[in-house]
């Protein structure tokens, strides 16, 4: 995938896959950080920062909140519920797909794995947060790739899924596939994603990251 955002279509189709049995609410927060590059929001932020010219670097974005059946709302942790816009059969090809984490014992259905495999062919980026890795793993997306998962699960995963190059890091990128460790590492992964993928809009990206004041630790846990 190109690191130049000029290669992205307009509007950007951003999808968030939700597990109907329950998804960690914090896992899908990275989509909100990404949305700060949406044109109308960036214009407002740029005006406030006294840099109105940076507003032109925004994207139009279209959001898709997807679960297997399309049943809405989708249960989240913390008692929250999210409105679902599409099922896996009605969702169009996406540009970016974010997969939040279900319970650790979750195993996706054949229909879900087919959906993820199909979207993987189309997307410019697929990002998993925390146990969202389970969806990508059981869909074969990680096969032969470098990836990460929650620290407490990595030892077992190295035995259970040796076809994956597991790395004990906060986030990992292998081509267009990104994965993160624990729930808050999803935000750190999104920061790295935004900096790399929208490098031709660096000033605008850094402006919104500075305003959001996301704490960024290194890719390595020791950092």
Short overview:
The longest helix has 13 residues, at 110-122. Helix content is 30%, strand content 17%. The chain is of the alpha/beta class.
Describe the structure.
The protein is of the alpha/beta class and 223 residues long. The protein is 30% helix and 17% strand. The chain has seven helices and eleven strands. It has helices at 30-34, 39-48, 110-122, 133-137, 151-160, 185-197, 202-212; strands spanning 12-17, 61-67, 74-75, 81-82, 86-87, 96-99, 125-128, 146-147, 165-166, 171-174, 177-180. The protein has a seven-stranded mixed beta sheet with strand order 5-2-1-6-7-11-10. Strands 3-4 form a two-stranded antiparallel sheet. The protein has a two-stranded parallel ribbon with strand order 8-9. It is globular, with a radius of gyration of 17 Å.
Key terms:
223 residues, 7-stranded mixed β-sheet, 11 strands, 30% helix, alpha/beta
Describe the secondary-structure layout.
Layout: E1 12-17, H1 30-34, H2 39-48, E2 61-67, E3 74-75, E4 81-82, E5 86-87, E6 96-99, H3 110-122, E7 125-128, H4 133-137, E8 146-147, H5 151-160, E9 165-166, E10 171-174, E11 177-180, H6 185-197, H7 202-212
Parallel strand pairs: 1-2, 1-6, 2-5, 6-7, 7-11, 8-9
Antiparallel strand pairs: 3-4, 10-11
């Amino acid at each position: 995938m190109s690191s130049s955002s000029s290669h992205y279509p307009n509007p950007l189709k951003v999808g968030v896959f939700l597990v109907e049995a329950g998804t960690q609410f914090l896992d899908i927060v990275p989509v909100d950080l990404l949305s700060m590059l949406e044109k109308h929001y960036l214009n407002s932020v740029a005006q406030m920062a006294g840099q109105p010219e940076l507003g032109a670097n925004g994207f139009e974005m279209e959001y898709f909140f997807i679960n297997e059946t399309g049943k809405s709302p989708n249960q989240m942790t913390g008692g929250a519920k999210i409105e679902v816009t599409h099922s896996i059969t009605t969702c169009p090809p996406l540009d970016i797909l974010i997969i939040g984490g279900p319970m650790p014992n979750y195993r996706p259905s054949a229909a879900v794995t087919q959906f993820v495999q199909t979207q993987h062919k189309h997307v410019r980026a697929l990002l998993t947060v925390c146990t969202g890795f389970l969806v990508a793993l059981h869909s074969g997306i990680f096969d032969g790739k470098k990836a990460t998962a929650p620290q407490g699960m990595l030892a077992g995963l190295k035995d259970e899924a040796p076809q994956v190059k597991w790395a004990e890091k906060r986030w990992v990128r292998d081509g267009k596939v990104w994965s993160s460790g624990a729930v808050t590492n999803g935000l750190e992964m999104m920061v790295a994603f935004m900096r790399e993928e929208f490098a031709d809009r660096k000033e605008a990206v850094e402006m919104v990251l500075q305003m959001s004041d996301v704490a960024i630790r290194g890719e390595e846990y020791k950092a």
